[in-house]
Amino acid sequence: MKPLQQGKKKLQKGFxxxxxxxxxxxxxVLAAIAMPQxxxxxxxxxxxxxxxxxxxxxxxxEAYAVxxxxxxxxxxxxxxxxxxxxxxxxxxxxxxxxxxxxxxISFTFKDVPDASNLTAKQNLTLTRSANGEWTxxxxxxxxxxxxxxxxxxxx
Length: 155
Known about the structure:
By secondary structure, the protein is α+β, with helices and mostly antiparallel strands. The protein has one helix and five strands; from the N terminus they run αβββββ.
């Protein structure tokens, strides 16, 4: 028979409740910091994708302007290389107030879940001036959000 061992402690196995609570708190703090940054990253990539698509169509619009002497009419977007996108829709808007090939290509983002929270129902516009210069702008995405590319201006 073994004698009873008194004064010896058993080895503890597992984690205490306080240790588990500390781990959960650390994960919560990290998630609170990471989620807004991730959403901003997703919105920025959506805007960059749209801008790349619209920039690719600028060549076709320039060719159209040289051939016909005017900006393409609304409804000819797919004919001039703008594909349909899940993020939203693009539209040509000739400037009727001026003569020549002035106008804009406007893209309007869809609502959530097709677009992120930061870009939902927002717009991005490429505008062609009479001398053929293109500018990028948005009337409802703030420049200080860090979502717009550096060459675009916002509200």
